[in-house]
Amino acid sequence: MLDVTVKVPEERLAEFYAMYARWLAGPEVREETGGSGGRELAEWTAADVELAEEVWEKFSGTAKTLFSVLIDEPERRFTGDELARMLHIEKGRHGIAGVLGWPGRHCAAVGRHYCWCWEYGDEGAPVMYWMTDEVAGLFGRVRDRNG
């Protein structure tokens, strides 16, 4: 692999990492995410226990720790910098966006949207991350059962 450096507007870094994860996943996953003839990604539901177990097992230790924070406080919105401080990630919000790249790919591979939510705040405000009650409950059960 080659190292490539690109400039990305800071406020769009999370979006860039998500796009990059989809690209890394390859054509078969991109087709599943809504390309012509492919299937649309579905939202996570409480019934998706087996799929949640499959993706949880693929998450890195850092990703599991990040998601545990979101699981333990569903619906609470965290900035990337808050999460980075809590998890001792040196690159701050940029590091958080990087941690979420592969989990996004794993979710898409099983035909599901991200298991977390994110949005930009008002102009200049940081990106916020959270999990819904339903998805936090699902992944919380998987985490507690599988570690």
Structural account:
This protein has 147 residues and is mainly α. Residues 28-37 have low confidence and may be disordered. The termini are far apart. It has helices spanning 13-25, 27-32, 49-58, 61-72, 80-87, 92-99, 101-109, 133-146; strands at 78-79, 117-120, 127-130. It has a single domain (10-146), classed as Orthogonal Bundle (Arc Repressor Mutant, subunit A), CATH 1.10.10. Helix 1 packs across helix 7 (101-109).
Number of domains: 1
Please give the number of β-strands: 3
Mean pLDDT: 85
> Largest sheet, order of strands side by side?
1-3-2
CATH topology: Arc Repressor Mutant, subunit A
Q: Cα distance, first to last residue?
A: 32 Å
CATH architecture: Orthogonal Bundle
Radius of gyration: 15 Å
Number of helices: 8
The biggest sheet, with number of strands, parallel, antiparallel or mixed sense and barrel status, is: 3 strands, antiparallel
Question: What is the ordering of alpha helices and beta strands?
Answer: HHHHEHHHEEH
- The first-level CATH class is given as Mainly Alpha
Structural class comes to mainly alpha
Q: Which range does the strand content fall in?
A: 5-15%
Helical content, roughly?
40-55%
**What does the overall shape look like?**
globular
The parts where pLDDT drops under 50 for at least 5 residues are: 28-37
